[in-house]
Amino acid sequence: MMLRRALVVVAACALLPAVAFAEKNPAIGYRHALMDLVYSNFGPITAMVKGEIPWDDARMAGYGKDLKAVVSLNAMRGWPAGSEGGHSKDEIWTKLDDFQKKMEAFQSEASKLGDLAVAGDREAIKTQFSATGKTCKSCHDAFKEKDEQ
Ligand code: HEC
Predict the structure, then answer these.
(1) Which of 51, 108, 110, 117 matches a 20 to 30 Å C-alpha distance to 72?
(2) What is the CATH number of the domain that holds 65?
């Protein structure tokens, strides 16, 4: 019984640093949530385009619609001054114009991909998928730290 209570306290304390960190840097939570939502839609689109899962026009249209909605959000809210950290390189804040241009290029290509995914022309979707993927890579290469794991 005592041991069990002690374990619960230890488990609760283990969560504390993460909570405090998120409160200190709400922007980091915002950008992770944003990128995760991008990936949650772009990921299955990728899998369908590459033939890793069966192509389903209705699901493609749904992911496209949601991707377009996600890239209409104010992405720069995730990288305000003074929010260095996470996997974001410090260069973002010294080259903010460049970062913002890359973000806008991505939002524009992903928004077109969203429309095409809803329209359903598979060849057009594949072409626009590549164009969009290049804008992710271009920004990650310049501004995102590599994942260590
Ligand atoms: C304009 C720059 C930019 C573009 C465009 C961009 N990303 Fe990112 N992305 C980043 C940065 C910077 C990070 C690191 C965020 C951090 O940890 O501080 C990141 C992180 C991520 C993560 C990890 C999120 C997490 O929870 O740690 C995923 C997944 C991701 N991006 C996917 C994508 C995909 C997929 C695309 C394109 C469809 C894309 N990104 C386009 C800059 C960008």
Answers:
(1) 51
(2) 1.20.120.10
- Report residue 45 CA to chain centroid gap: 14
User: What is the pTM (predicted TM-score) of this model?
Assistant: 0.87
- Total domain count for the chain? 1
Question: Does the pLDDT at position 107 exceed 70?
Answer: yes
Cα separation, 105 vs 69, whole angstroms = 16
**Which residues have any ligand 1 atom within 6 Å of their CB?**
28, 31-32, 35-36, 38-39, 42, 86-88, 99, 102-103, 106, 132, 135-136, 139-140, 143-144
Identify whether 125 is part of a domain: yes
Judge whether 91 lies within some domain.
Answer: yes
For 68-84, the DSSP string reads HHHTTS-GGGGS-TT--
Contacts of 97 (CB under 8 A, 6+ apart): none
In a domain, 111, yes or no: yes
* Nearest of 46, 146, 45, 140 to residue 102 by alpha carbon: 140
Chain segment 40-61, per-residue pLDDT in tens? 999 999 999 999 999 999 999 9
Kindly state whether residue 61 falls inside one of the protein's structural domains.
Answer: yes
The two structure tokens encoding residue 46: 């990728």
